């Protein structure tokens, strides 16, 4: 019993000593921080004198260009070849023209989907010698419509990046690219349908 009590007292004594060391360390740290705080307080405050801009010393040779309202940082990345002599300025397409082009291309593709998509699906079925339900045409059409805005935007930006001015056949070129994508997409979709959803064409 005495042995256990003696051991307990030793452990308690060691614990108290450790706590005292910890307290001394913390006190030293607090004293150091107080000294640094006092040193910072004693420094003279910084004072910024008046800043003057002398606009009368600026020289502007010419002021030309176009003010585009509504640009965002992502569109600014498309501005290229800005020359100091005001020649060779390539700016992104204006939002109004972009919207107009997008609507014209969308209308053309919507008309294509209504008039020619069934024939595209039929041709693919003949080439693959399979038969699919007519309900897939409606499914394909809706899926294409969802993806259309992104694809139109992609091709318009691609044309801008080609460093060329507006061309009369720009919309026709985008429409042809999208039609080609639709034909390839229909082929890929039907060819990857599970076998139980396909039927073989009767020859």
From TrEMBL:
InterPro entries reported for this sequence: Spore_germination_GerPC
One Pfam family hit: GerPC
Keywords: Coiled coil
Lineage of source species: Bacteria, Bacillati, Bacillota, Bacilli, Bacillales
Keyword Coiled coil annotated: yes
Protein name per the record: Spore germination protein PC
Regions annotated as coiled coil: 9-43
